[in-house]
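All the exercises in this workshop are built on plain-text protein records. A record pairs a protein's sequence with a compact description of its fold. The structure tokens are whole numbers drawn from a learned vocabulary of backbone shapes. Once this layout is familiar, the rest of the handout is easier to follow. An example says more than a description, so a record of this kind follows.
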Amino acid sequence: MIAAVCRRLACASLASIAFYLAESPRPVTIREPRAGQEALAKKKEHCSAALDLLHSIGRARGQQVRVFRGEDDFAIFTVDETFDEPDDAILRIGRLGRLRLGSTFESNGRISPVVVIPGLTEAQAKARGELIEQLDDDGRHTGLLIMAPHGGELEPPTDLQAERLAAKLAGKPVSTWRCKGFHPRGGKAAFDRWHITSTDISESSYPLLARIATRQFTYAVSFHGMTDDRILIGGAAPTRLRIEIRDAIRSAINDLKIPVALAMPGDANGGKDPRNIVNRYTAAGVQIEQSPRARREHWKKIADAVAQVFATRL
């Protein structure tokens, strides 16, 4: 069913996109977590649903869904748990998650398997407050995969960094995957609507990511934003490679007010989890976390420094 809906969406005019989104959602009752779901109650991006509900829309545990509270209040969530419910239409979301839908109150809503609408241009996505994927890939090479899962207004300008790095390495075996999310009210609202933690992102919910999911790359780099006032070089890549990238960035920005450091064990933004998308398709994944000021003032220099490192490796 999902594939059929996506094919229709890819050919749809903007006027008919709303129809296709309205065609696939199933009515649900949004409720708070039940007893025994204390972990879910503390999460912002996760929900719980009955298996029959998920099967009815072609989704499974660990995948993403789009949840509507009203026409304009919606967000994407990862299905974290499945429970037998007295009513299969019950969807359970914690207080912080319900706040992403505009209110903490329990309410009626809808659930849809469509996370990314294919066929939208970046301008159209921005005008409509939507999420798009973009992929530049020849379908064959196994060199470098460049990623920006939280581009657009979520963690700007990480998507532009990914594109700049690819341009700097033009002619080399490079693929670039990025997501760009927007909202009429801007950055924080876009983040609340579209952000999914990198360890949770499911290829089943992102069709372009699925195209490269079966291929192993020699290297991968993922650009991210964080609130800490530093630049953190993480991921599961060998320490030697991460040190080389750290030193190149430190030299390029030449800003003593922004520390550039290697992620240490226990760092919340360390990116070492094997489930992280930067580590799934390579044994040498590098996650670059950057403060708002680093991204605002040095985003080009950071991308260029990373290009300098990989130019001699590809």
About this structure: The first helix runs from residue 2 to 10. Confidence is low (pLDDT under 50) at residues 9-16. The radius of gyration is 20 Å.
